[in-house]
């Protein structure tokens, strides 16, 4: 009896499952660490001995000396590389954030259309998806830039839409609000409106929990803020004046000009990503079993109630992880901006700053680190949301 | 359940036909069900039993014939469809509980959103129904945490919460492990004893024999034979009925 036990407990170490798995992990870790150390030390040696340049980020404090086509913050060629980098980052951030919002809206719409029993609606969505999912994004971006926005008429013959909005090959000029003296007071009023809206939302949420019929809270929140904003607008003396663009010789003046590069990049990213999001949404809705819809229907819920209370909450669980991937793709794909001349993070840092300073390792470490952080933050938020809505099983 | 005296026959089906593409699933099916009657429909798979009861609350659309439920003709009129659905409850083979909602929320959903009851009222009704089906302690769990038999009992409670006049059962025990079938059949029998009008598609012959007022045998989309359980199990007339019964008994 004892003999049997002893033989079961101690196999030779080279056949012991636990020893083997531990050993293999140690070997792999050793190889990875060894390679990493070799490359890093090789890089440091190479840089310091052959070129006598150590890794340093000091160049970021030097004057950039180049212009950037468009910027969300004040920037001139006298500013530092660091500031130029931030300008690029903000441009990337702007196009990615707007892109995600528009691509989601368009994608959900196309995805729901794809499931419509109406033949025409259904076909239009299917054709959209098949066309835009199967054209390379770079081709699509250059198409928008070269074949659409650059083919708009010269400024002097600009298409004028009511507003007025000027469409020309330099971009689109739209009317834009310009703050006056009372603008800061108005911002305070808006802040109060947001606080009030949040209060209303909280009260309604509590009431919704009590009655079981949850009102559509975002609508109430926005409604309250809008109402307060309107009252403030009427009381205060013109917090914003509307700056309308107008033609002045060879250019438009006034208003806000959205550059053709920005518009081409945004359109391309939105149209391309929406096709993928549409498929994600369709798959999510179809993943909810037919029985769920039947049970809801048999209970007397309307189709809208069924979609809102039964189908969508369950589809969301399937949709969120692939949707996160699409958001990450859109953000990373925005680096193709370099092909159409939009000064995003990669175009500013990976092209201009790199060419001027020659600091390839530092610049790319910064660029990769920034994209990585942006992506990780996005996935973190999406994962938190996914965690909150996951199904309870056994 | 208060009996509707104005309409003695609560379900009237006359010459109902249904096609899926080329395939005719129902051929001139006629059946009249009186209030408080329990009718069990049996037959081989693919005989149109499920399709037939799914036509009664319009989960399937019939293409010819007449269906009148509690005096309301079932047509393309969406208001009629709504009324009929609010008077009929349905229990499915696969339970179809909503996995993202608790047992309590599953049961109170329709009363709150369709009947517009207050949440507290709906919860009171739900609790008394959970007591009735014997699982009040499961109210705050999610369907995924319950056994099949418990899930089906929740599904029955969920249908009853709408206070229907008619209950349709579509093979309610076919997806259950054998030891759980009885707990569901017991609940159904108790329901029948309270005078609920029930239309039950099932393979449980014991249930048919004990609880049914009438048994309907369907085959190939047709009603072959209708009769009391005694008639059926001792004195079936049609050859097809006899063959079917000999195969399963």
How would you describe this protein?
- The complex is a heterodimer of chains A (394) and B (249).
- By secondary structure, chain A is α+β, with helices and mostly antiparallel strands.
- Chain A folds into two domains: 2-51; 81-175 and 244-389, MetI-like fold (Orthogonal Bundle), CATH 1.10.3720.10.
- Helices cover 66% and strands 7% of the residues of chain A.
- Chain A has twelve helices and eight strands.
- In chain A, strands 1-2-3-8 form a four-stranded antiparallel β-sheet. A two-stranded antiparallel sheet of chain A has the order 4-5. A two-stranded antiparallel ribbon of chain A has the order 6-7.
- Chain A is globular and about 95 Å long.
- The mean pLDDT of chain A is 87.
- With 249 residues, chain B is of the alpha/beta class.
- Helix content of chain B is 39%, strand content 25%.
- Chain B has nine helices and ten strands.
- In chain B, the strands form two sheets. Chain B has a six-stranded mixed β-sheet with strand order 6-7-8-3-9-10, sandwiched between helices. Chain B has a four-stranded antiparallel β-sheet with strand order 2-1-4-5, covered by helices on one side.
- In chain B, a hairpin with a 2-residue loop joins strand 4 and strand 5 (72-73).
- Chain B is globular, with a radius of gyration of 18 Å.
- Chain B starts with 8 loop residues before the first strand and ends with a helix.
- In chain B, 49% of the residues are buried.
- The model of chain B is unreliable at 1-6 (pLDDT under 50).
- Classes of the chains: A alpha+beta (394), B alpha/beta (249).
- The A-B interface holds A 210-213, 289, 291-292, 294-301, 305, 309-310, 313-314, 317, 389, 391-394 and B 57, 59, 82, 85-86, 88-90, 92, 94, 96-100, 108-110, 112-114, 118-120, 122, 142, 144-145, 155, 158-159, 162.
């Amino acid at each position: 009896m004892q003999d049997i036990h002893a033989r079961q407990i101690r196999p030779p170490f080279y056949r012991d499952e636990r020893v083997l798995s531990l050993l293999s992990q140690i070997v792999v870790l050793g190889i990875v660490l060894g390679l990493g150390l070799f490359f890093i030390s090789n890089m440091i040696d190479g840089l310091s001995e052959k070129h006598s340049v150590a890794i340093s980020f000091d160049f970021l404090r030097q004057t950039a000396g180049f212009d950037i086509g468009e910027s969300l913050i004040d920037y001139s060629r006298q500013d530092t590389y660091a500031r130029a980098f931030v300008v690029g980052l903000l441009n990337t951030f702007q196009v990615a954030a707007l892109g995600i919002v528009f691509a989601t809206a368009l994608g959900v719409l196309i995805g729901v259309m794809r499931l419509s029993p109406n033949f025409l609606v259904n076909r239009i969505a299917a054709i959209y998806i098949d066309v835009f999912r199967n054209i390379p994004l770079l081709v699509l971006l250059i198409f928008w830039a070269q074949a659409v926005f650059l083919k708009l008429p010269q400024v002097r013959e600009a298409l004028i839409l009511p507003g007025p909005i000027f469409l020309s090959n330099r971009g689109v000029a739209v009317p834009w609000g310009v703050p006056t003296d009372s603008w800061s007071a108005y911002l305070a009023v808006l802040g109060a409106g947001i606080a009030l809206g949040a209060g209303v939302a909280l009260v309604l949420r509590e009431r919704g929990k009590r009655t079981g019929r949850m009102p559509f809270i975002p609508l109430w929140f926005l409604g309250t803020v809008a109402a307060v904003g309107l009252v403030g607008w009427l009381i205060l003396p013109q917090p914003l004046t509307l700056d309308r663009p107008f033609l002045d010789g060879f250019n438009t003046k006034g208003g806000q000009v959205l550059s053709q590069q920005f518009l081409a990049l945004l359109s391309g990213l939105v149209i391309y990503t929406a096709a993928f999001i549409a498929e994600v949404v369709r798959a999510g809705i179809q993943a909810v079993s037919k029985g769920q819809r039947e049970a809801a229907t048999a209970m007397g819920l309307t189709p809208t109630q069924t979609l809102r209370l039964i189908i969508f909450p369950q589809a969301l669980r399937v949709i969120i992880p692939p949707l996160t991937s699409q958001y990450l793709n859109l953000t990373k794909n925005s680096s193709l901006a370099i092909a159409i001349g939009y000064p995003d993070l990669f175009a500013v840092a990976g092209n201009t700053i790199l060419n001027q300073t020659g600091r390839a390792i530092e610049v790319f470490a910064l660029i990769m680190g920034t994209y990585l952080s942006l992506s990780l933050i996005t996935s973190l938020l999406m994962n938190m949301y996914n965690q909150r809505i996951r199904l309870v099983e056994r | 359940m208060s009996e509707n005296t104005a309409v003695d026959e609560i379900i009237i089906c006359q010459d109902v036909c249904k096609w899926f593409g080329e395939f005719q699933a129902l051929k001139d099916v006629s059946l009249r069900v009186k209030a408080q009657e329990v009718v069990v429909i049996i037959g081989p798979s693919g005989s149109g039993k499920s399709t037939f009861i799914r036509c009664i609350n319009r989960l399937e659309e019939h293409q010819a014939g007449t269906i009148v439920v509690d005096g309301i003709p079932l047509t393309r009129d969406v208001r009629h469809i709504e009324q009929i659905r609010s008077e009929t409850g349905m229990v499915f083979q696969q339970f179809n509980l909503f996995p993202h909602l608790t047992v309590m929320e599953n049961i109170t959903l329709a009363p709150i959103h369709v009947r517009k009851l207050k949440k507290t009222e709906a919860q009171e009704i739900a609790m008394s129904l959970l007591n009735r089906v014997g699982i009040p302690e499961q109210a705050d769990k999610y369907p995924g945490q319950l056994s099949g038999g418990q899930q089906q009992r929740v599904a029955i409670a969920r249908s009853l919460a709408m206070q229907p006049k008619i209950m349709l059962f579509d093979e309610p025990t076919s997806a259950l492990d054998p030891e759980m079938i009885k707990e569901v059949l017991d609940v159904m029998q108790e329901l029948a004893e309270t005078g609920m009008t029930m239309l039950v598609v099932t393979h449980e012959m014991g249930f048919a024999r004990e609880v049914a007022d009438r048994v309907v045998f369907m085959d190939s989309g047709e009603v072959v034979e209708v009769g009391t359980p005694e008639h059926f199990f001792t004195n079936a007339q049609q050859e097809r009925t006899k063959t079917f019964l000999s195969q399963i008994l």
